[in-house]
Structure formats: structure tokens, C-alpha cells
Write a structure and sequence with these properties.
Structural class: mainly beta
Strand order of the largest sheet: 11-12-13-34-33-35-31-32
Pfam family, one: NAGPA
Shape: globular
Keywords: Signal
Radius of gyration: 25 Å
Largest sheet: 8 strands, antiparallel
InterPro entries: NAGPA
Helix content: under 10%
Protein name: Phosphodiester glycosidase domain-containing protein
Number of strands: 38
Number of helices: 6
Organism: Selenomonas ruminantium
């Protein structure tokens, strides 16, 4: 929601919003998030329900005050907010009102808007000349002007109403598609990359598990041409999906779910995969419960270099360091992880089973995914499958996905292998007035329309983000980019 400014007094600029009925219960401010981007800084205020509020700007246009009536400041910021455009943010509770004062740096202006499900209010701070929002979809070329054939000859030949295509570089096409269905406006964003010029690679946030980073941050970290958020993750950054990078596992799931694999020749393939692992220490063998994740009760968890320098476990278990097939060290917890080996961390009944193991004993770790997957150096699992052999094929039930993923409209992300063999990353926005989101089936239909031969769903909702050339193309439903656990990137071969 874009709000225009108008003068109400000589000393201040005041805007009033009736965002809720006259009688409402006190709303809780549950979180405050801040992100500094290339074009603007964004503050996002998360609410238990949308409060009533007024906004005022001081005469020197340096202090923006948000006056939330009937609001309770349940959230207390632990870190001071300060950046290139926002100098400070202060809170004050007075007579049942929560006053939030945002001090802007000189020469800046702002935009304020609302987002629903969940209720959020955001403030964008930007230079004066950036106050006029650019359209989401660039204007189409004038009639008779088309990209040079040499630019498009290796891209999918798509041409339908609402689709805009722009060549960003040789072999890289950005596509934006806007249309309307029975729920309203739909805005979707895609990048297609020539298979002969570019390769797909899975990456971890900050290069490890657990880790949290924006998709654009991972794109910048790897100097990628494009990136899309990838698999599901826990709040601490642990992967909830199968990840294999450069031949080493970095995450597992015991559900049989769809994954994208890249073979040793750099060729992509897609299909269902599941993990089976076992640990042999001395003469005792037990199944692996997880890889590079938090150790659970009575579990066997294995850690490799993707988890960082240490296991960060407590002292209530036992850990065995394995290098070159031999147990080289035993400790109670927080063991150093060797660059060329593993740490086997056990707890409870698993610890009892391995109680007789000693330094020097045999140590073996076996991991099996299936012949084709075992040979693939890189795997990114997520799911469900959306498209198979050019046909809609949604396997959410078979892959045992919960209802919040299976049903309803939502922002979505996907990766596809196109009929011409090229790669496609895509997102569709949702939970916003300018894009209502899609069901899994409708998302699959759209991917077929974009030329997908095979496609799978990625983590969606507020995680959905597509980055091209370091810039986020869509409008994430959180109001700003979410910190996620992994991404798929496109880089030059």
C-alpha cells in the first residue's frame, strides 16, 4: 500500500490510517526485522493482528514516528537498528500507545505499506529520487522490436499474453509473467539458463550447516548469475531435505522425496530418493539417524566438514572421530570435526551399544541413496514433484508432505529441467494484493506452460526468492528476504 504525503501542520507531516475497526483488542508487536538492500532499507513490524496507527514526519524530515494505538510492545529488540539509511529506531509506550521513532539519515524519504497473513507493516527508506516505484513488469518493447535471434535461439520459444522476456546475458533469459485467475492477480518470475553455458550447484547458507542467509547473500557469496531458495530448513538452519555437495552429504530425510541430481558430467536428472546409512565401530553396527543436524535422544548422528569445525554437542553423549577407517579419538561432546573424516555422535541406548569401542578400532560409515544418486556429486532434495515428462504430476501425498505445503494458495519456488534441456528457476508471489499465490497443481500447470519437462517444488511461503544478477526479482511475502538454509545457483561453466 503506497501512501502519499500531505501537510497537516507547519511543524510536522501527519498521515492517519484506520487499519482496524474502532474497537479492537490490544495488538502485540511480535517481531521487528531490518534489512539494508541496494535500493532501500526495509523495516518490517510483525503483529499478532493489524493495529490502528498514525504516522508523522518531523519538520526537518528526519524523524518518522509510527503511533500504534491499543498496542502492546511484547517484542523487545535485543540489537540496536542502524544502517546506511536508518540512523536509529526507538520505542516508547505512553497511554496505551506504542510510539516507534525511526530516525532517517539526511536527504531520504520513505514508503509505508501493509501485508497480510501474517499481519505486517513495513517501512522502506530510500533516496528522494527513488520515491516513485518502478513497475514490477518492465514495459514491453514497441511493436516490431524483438530480441535478436542470436540472443534467443537457444531459449524456449515462448510467446503469450502477459509474458515479458529479457536477455540478461548470453544464454540467460529473465521472464516475468502476470495474469489473472479466479482469485485475482498472479505475478511469477523465472530465469532460464542455457545448459551448455551454465551449471546448477547447491549451496549452503554461509557455506555450512546449520546456517541462515538470504538467497541474495548466497548469490553474492558465490558470484552466481542467478539463485533461488532451495530446500526446507529448521529455525536454527538445519536442513530438512537431502543435500549432497561435492560428494559429501550435508543433510538427509528419511522420506522418499523428489530431488535434483547433477551427475559427474554436469547433467541434471530428477526423481525420488531416500537415504540409508549405517555406522560400524569395532564390531557394533547401528543405523544413522541424521547427518549434520542436531543430535536427538538415543540417536546416531554423523558430522562432516559441512557442519563446521566442531559438533557443538553437549556432554551427555559419546563421540568417536573416524579418519581413514579408524577410530582416532573419543570424547563426551563438542568434538573437533576432521577435514578428511567424520565424527560419530551417539546418545542414550546408542551410546550404550558402542560403550566398548576404543581408539584404534575399525570405523566405517556406509551411506546409500541408490546407484544413480550415489554417483552424483551434487544433490538438492525438496519436493514434491510437480512435472514429469512434460505432464502435471504432483506427488505431495506420496511424499508425505504436511497440509500447509500440500493445500491452498501460497508463494512457491521451483526448479525445472526444460524440454530443450535448459535450466529454469521460478517463483510465484503470494499472500499479497499484487499476487495471490498458487496451489501446487496450478504451479505445476504454469511450469508446464513455461516449457518444463521435469520440475520439483522448493521451499515456499516467505522463503521464496529469485535473484538475478544480485537483485531480488520478486516481492517476498515477509516484506523482505527471509534468511534461509540453502539455495540453488547458476554459474558459468
Amino acid at each position: 500500500m503506497l501512501i502519499k504525503k500531505r501537510s497537516l501542520a507547519a511543524w510536522a507531516l501527519t498521515l492517519s490510517f484506520l487499519s482496524a475497526p474502532a474497537c479492537i483488542e490490544a495488538a502485540d508487536l511480535t517481531a521487528v526485522r531490518y534489512h539494508s538492500g541496494t535500493a532501500h532499507d526495509r523495516l518490517v513490524f510483525d503483529w499478532s493482528e493489524m493495529p490502528r496507527y498514525n504516522v508523522s514526519l518531523s519538520a526537518d524530515k528526519r524523524v518518522l514516528t509510527l503511533d500504534f494505538s491499543d498496542a502492546v510492545k511484547r517484542y523487545v529488540s535485543k540489537e540496536a537498528i542502524s544502517g546506511s539509511r536508518v540512523e536509529s529506531v526507538d520505542y516508547k509506550v505512553k497511554d496505551g500507545h506504542l510510539l516507534v521513532s525511526i530516525r532517517l539519515r539526511p536527504g531520504l524519504t520513505y514508503k509505508l505499506g501493509k501485508l497480510a497473513a501474517p499481519d505486517r507493516i513495513f517501512v522502506d527508506v530510500m533516496p528522494q529520487q527513488s520515491a516513485v516505484r518502478k513497475p514490477v513488469i518492465p514495459a514491453k518493447p514497441a511493436t516490431g522490436t524483438k530480441p535478436a535471434r542470436a540472443d534467443m535461439k537457444d531459449m524456449m520459444p515462448l510467446d503469450f499474453d502477459g509474458l515479458y522476456t529479457e536477455m540478461m546475458a548470453p544464454g540467460v533469459a529473465k521472464r516475468e509473467y502476470v495474469y489473472w485467475d479466479d482469485a485475482g492477480k498472479i505475478s511469477a518470475y523465472f530465469v532460464e539458463a542455457d545448459k551448455d553455458l551454465y551449471k546448477v550447484k547447491p549451496v549452503l547458507a554461509k557455506g555450512r550447516v546449520p546456517g541462515l542467509q538470504t538467497t541474495s547473500g548466497m548469490s553474492d557469496m558465490t558470484d552466481a548469475v542467478a539463485a533461488v531458495n532451495a530446500t526446507y530448513f529448521a529455525g536454527n538452519g538445519d536442513a530438512i531435505g537431502m543435500i549432497k555437495i561435492d560428494g559429501d552429504m550435508a543433510g538427509t530425510t528419511y522420506y522418499r522425496r523428489t530431488a535434483l541430481g547433477i551427475n559427474s558430467y554436469g547433467q541434471p536428472f530428477m526423481g525420488p530418493v531416500s537415504y540409508e546409512g549405517s555406522v560400524l565401530l569395532g564390531s557394533v553396527s547401528m543405523p544413522v539417524s541424521g547427518v549434520d543436524c542436531e543430535r536427538g535422544a538415543n540417536n546416531v548422528t554423523i558430522y562432516n566438514h559441512w557442519y563446521g569445525s566442531r559438533t557443538r554437542t553437549n556432554e551427555y553423549g559419546k563421540e568417536y572421530t573416524v579418519v581413514n577407517g579408524t577410530v582416532t579419538a573419543i570424547s563426551d561432546g563438542n568434538s573437533p570435526i576432521p577435514a578428511d573424516g567424520w565424527v560419530v555422535s551417539v546418545h542414550g541406548t546408542a551410546a550404550e551399544a558402542f560403550a566398548g569401542v576404543q581408539v584404534g578400532d575399525r570405523g566405517e560409515i556406509t551411506q546409500e541413496l541408490g546407484a544413480r544418486w550415489d554417483k552424483a556429486p551434487d544433490i538438492m532434495g525438496a519436493g514434491p514433484r510437480l512435472v514429469q515428462n512434460g505432464q502435471v504430476c504432483v506427488t505431495a501425498g506420496e511424499e508425505q508432505f504436511p497440509g500447509d505445503i500440500r493445500y491452498g494458495r501460497a508463494p512457491r519456488s521451483a526448479v525445472a529441467i526444460l524440454k530443450n534441456g535448459n535450466y529454469l528457476f521460478g517463483v510465484v508471489d503470494g499472500r499479497q494484493s499484487n499476487s495471490r499465490g498458487l496451489t501446487l497443481t496450478d504451479w505445476a500447470k504454469l511450469l508446464v506452460k513455461m516449457g518444463a519437462k521435469d520440475a520439483m517444488n522448493l521451499d515456499g511461503g516467505g522463503s521464496s526468492a529469485l535473484v538475478i544478477g544480485g537483485q531480488v526479482q520478486n516481492s517476498p511475502s515477509d516484506g523482505s528476504e527471509r534468511y534461509v538454509g540453502s539455495a540453488l545457483i547458476l554459474t558459468k561453466k
